[in-house]
Design brief:
This protein is α+β, with helices and mostly antiparallel strands. Helix content is about 30%, strand content about 20%. The protein folds into two domains: about 120 residues, Alpha-Beta Barrel (N-terminal domain of MutM-like DNA repair proteins), CATH 3.20.190.10; about 110 residues, Helicase, Ruva Protein, domain 3 (Orthogonal Bundle), CATH 1.10.8. A hairpin with a 2-residue loop joins strand 9 and strand 10. Helix 1 packs parallel to helix 7, helix 4 packs across helix 7 and helix 6 packs across helix 7. The relative contact order is 0.13. The chain binds a DNA duplex through helix 6.
Length: about 260
DNA sequence: TCAGTTGTTTATAT
DNA sequence: AATATAAACAACTG
């Protein structure tokens, strides 16, 4: 699930459920989810007795702050959070559990892409996030356009480059390009300034609406993601059968009528 | 059995 | 130097 809107949802979940709580202990059921030099003992010692504070988010990264260290979570392809009042019903993919004075937050992650980092101060936090660009939703469209303008090559590749702009994943990139009527393999250097600005505006509007709907973008019938990936699916705008290709190394769906291919090389 | 999966990193090639 | 591609990671679903 996790692209920017999903992680924002997780951030709000974390904030709501852990507000005012104190960490009693942490349970690491699978050390293979720990990143950097943190170990189960180090994590527990660092967090025991700490008060949970308002979490932040940059792109797909959740920064779970305490009155001491910050826990950094990345959810990979299928990670998530579950809050429970008691230790009952833990799932085998709950890799780390933050036990508080009134319930526990579980970091679930089936495939163990992503993981957990621990930063003892802002310097360590900056080190972990050194390659992460500005949050895609925190920038004005003109700023997004200016960043895109520094790049050449396939537009989808740039949208998904987390160092250029953080938060846009494969599904959202397809949605943005479909709404902007741009073929995923169009080249950035071919786009006009106005074209880039339009793309940046669509980017913000897709992210904003997905975040404000509070879950994801799949329910909206007028959007590509409502039908994306289904065999024989038709473009919600014009009814043309969607096509599948690979761009930026990822499965990509687009409408061949609304998103005309770039001129052959 | 095999292909496919919302992400990132690394290696390799162009 | 930038960009493009593929593989690897891990665990599951259909």
């Amino acid at each position: 699930m996790p692209e920017l809107p999903d992680v924002e949802h997780l951030r709000r979940t974390w904030a709501r459920d852990t507000a005012g709580r104190t960490i009693r202990r942490t349970v690491v059921t699978d050390p293979g989810i720990l990143r950097g030099d943190v170990t189960p003992d180090v994590l527990d010692a660092a967090l025991r007795g700490r008060r949970l504070e308002e979490p932040d988010r940059i792109g797909k990264w959740l920064l779970a702050r305490t009155d001491g260290p910050t826990v950094i979570l990345h959810f990979g392809m299928d990670g998530g959070l579950r809050w429970a009042e008691s230790p009952d019903g833990r799932h085998r993919h709950d890799r780390v559990i933050f036990v508080t004075d009134a319930g526990e937050m579980r970091f679930r992650n089936m495939r163990k892409l992503g993981g957990l980092w621990l930063a003892h101060d802002e310097g360590a936090l900056a080190t972990v996030l050194a390659q992460v660009g500005p949050d895609a939703l925190a920038l004005e469209p003109r700023e997004v356009a200016a960043r895109l303008r520094t790049r050449r090559g396939q537009v989808k590749s740039a949208l998904m480059d987390q160092a250029l702009l953080s938060g846009v994943g494969n599904l959202i990139a397809d949605e943005i390009l479909w709404q902007a009527r741009l073929h995923p393999k169009r080249r950035l250097e071919e786009l006009t300034d106005q074209g880039l600005l339009d793309l940046a505006r669509v980017t913000r509007s897709v992210l904003r609406e997905a975040v404000n709907r509070y879950d994801y973008l799949s329910r909206k019938r007028s959007w590509l993601n409502h039908v994306r990936g289904r065999p024989g699916a038709a473009c919600p705008r014009c009814g043309t059968p969607l096509e599948r290709t690979v761009a930026a190394g990822r499965t990509t769906w687009f409408c061949p009528a609304c998103q005309p291919a770039p001129p052959a090389a």
